[in-house]
Amino acid sequence: MILQLLFVAPNHDSIGSEIPRKFEPPHSDHFYNYQSDFKSFDHFDSRFNRFLSFWNIKGASVAVAKDGKLIYAKGFGLSDVDNNKNVEPYNLFRIASVSKLITATAIMKLVEDGEITLEDKVFGPQGILNMAPYDKYRDKKVEEITVRHLLEHSGGWTTRYGDPLFEQHSLAKRNGYKEPLSSEDIIAIMLKKRLHFRPGEASYYSNLGFVILGKVIEAASGVDYELYVKAKILYPLGIFDMKLAGNYRDTKENLEVNYYEQPGAIKIQDCDGSGELVSKSNGGNNLKALEAAGGWIASSTDLMKLLLAIDGFGFPADILSEKSLETMATPKAIGYSPLGWRTTNRHGYWLRTGSFAGTSCVLKRRPDGISYVILCNTSAWVGPDFPFKMASFTDRELNRINKFPVEDNYQHMPSKYISLKN
């Protein structure tokens, strides 16, 4: 394997020297359904199939770990209904807002490396994003927004007039932009509007805030957001299949599943501006613009590798310090979001969910050493509530298992971990 370090970021030599500009990584470890045919999970398998059938979910992938070991990885249903292809644990799924946990991890890595602080201002003359197109804003309060505000969804935006990441056609039309909109376009448009509240004074879920964090990562590191995440977070963990998603079925990755919506789901105009009516999961939603807020695809086993590296248990070793992980998991006050996680509590349960058309997923860390990842290629009618239903079901069924496998499936695969410093 040849690693060519041909790119040095301006004013960021220490980061640029570690980031490959031309690098062809190997595949992630690929697991197969037959490897998790455990008698102790027979009841779980049966019940999970019934659960998917009840909610009309076409396919799903599940990974379970205990005490830092991957003990179970299995696909259910179909990755491609038309061609009757089964889901395997190596299949890639859109992970929607689980992407926010990846972005938060990258931000904390920059903090630990001394490139930024959580209290750094994002906009304005002294801000991280003090360049075009982010230097034209209407509301002076924008200059108060810090990195922490964006992480905890307190940057000042609500979805009072809709979520700009899912209202791109009307945004483009009203503001004279050509479609498809880029993430830079959307940020520039929203900066021309007034904030809905003063930064830091409330917490309101914001995809826009995390899209901006992607630009913070680029400005602070001097390299592309996706490249930074791969080089500093994913590749060192042996995660090579994760990447940013495309918008269309005919441009999906080789291992990626097809996506499905419930019967009768409405169609919307293609995000490319053609005016053609398409399904939201196949061109309607512009995932390329979602980027750091919801643009990643992953397998359940790769996501589990990441989870085990930021779960605070230390087995295997975490990639962030104990202080950073505590900061991420601890909201500053009641009503505020933790950093990257969807919910956490004082008992040690950390949850991250994701949901949009064609996708439902949940990732959970429990204080008893059990963690799980569930990815679905179908959206349910209950929308963003469905991942919570998956979590409740999975907790209940895992609690019924008396004896878990003890071998670590990760340890039975050839090691492909690399150091980007070599």
Q: Could you characterize what this model shows?
A:
With 422 residues, the chain is α+β, with helices and mostly antiparallel strands. It has one domain (30-410): DD-peptidase/beta-lactamase superfamily (Beta-lactamase), CATH 3.40.710.10. It is 28% helix and 15% strand. It is built from 13 helices and 14 strands. It has helices at residues 13-16, 42-54, 99-112, 147-151, 168-175, 183-191, 207-221, 225-234, 280-284, 287-290, 300-308, 322-329, 386-398, and strands at residues 3-4, 22-23, 59-66, 69-80, 85-86, 93-94, 243-244, 267-269, 277-279, 296-298, 343-344, 350-356, 359-365, 370-376. The strands form four sheets. Strands 5-4-3-14-13-12-11 form a seven-stranded antiparallel beta sheet, with helices on both faces. A three-stranded antiparallel beta sheet has the order 6-10-7. Strands 1-2 form a two-stranded antiparallel sheet. The longest helix is centred in the middle third of the chain and has 15 residues, at 207-221. It starts with a strand and ends in a 24-residue tail after the last helix. The relative contact order is 0.19.
Entry keywords:
422 residues, 28% helix, three-stranded antiparallel sheet, seven-stranded antiparallel sheet, disordered N terminus, Beta-lactamase, alpha+beta, single chain, disordered C terminus
